[in-house]
Predict the 3D structure of the following.
Amino acid sequence: MDQYTEAAETRPTDQDQGFTYSGRPGGIVPLTVKNALLNILTLTLYRFWAKTDVRRHLWRHTLFQGDPLEYTGVGKELFLGFLLVLFVVLFPLAIVNSVFESTFGPTNAPQFLFFGFVLFLFGIAQYRARRYRLSRTVWRGVRAAQTGEAWVYGLMTLGFWFLLILTLGWSYPWQRIHLAKYEMNNTIFGDRRFKFEGTPGPLYRRFAQAWIIGLGIYLVLVWAILLIGKAIT
């Protein structure tokens, strides 16, 4: 066996490859410029169709075992979803918040509970958005899907946010792993269910570095502000 035959036999085929990206650097720039101009002309109304165009571009250039993904969503769906959230969720929440402020003042216990409810809804919205993207993702005619309950994800998000505050951010890697585990373990592609086995340990080294650097920058800024204030007075 010569060296060329051996190299050909050991070279990975498309079937051996996982996910790859075939887009060239800067290939999305023309699409970005077009979307920016149309967003300006339509006062940002085009952003739903712009987001759809970007997803189609990214999905089309994302290959799995040599074949591209396909995004079948349309901008109209995102636009109608936005209107539904705007009139059914956001407007009522804004009214309730105004009532709380006018009745109990700017800082009150009901408003604290209201803030927790908003975080709960934010988690639900994230999970439902992911479900939508997966339901519009197709590969070789096989469609992805997501099971699980959005309200469970919302409760997890709410709890993790309060835990994040209590731990000064140190629960974040653990939080992200558990949310990712719920997402991936409820992801289905065709008749195959995904399984996630990640642990937060490997994330903490990088997180600790970023946390310490961020704390250092914060302390330097506070020190500089105090010095400037002392010099002015």
Observations:
- The chain has three domains: 1-71, 89-199, 202-233.
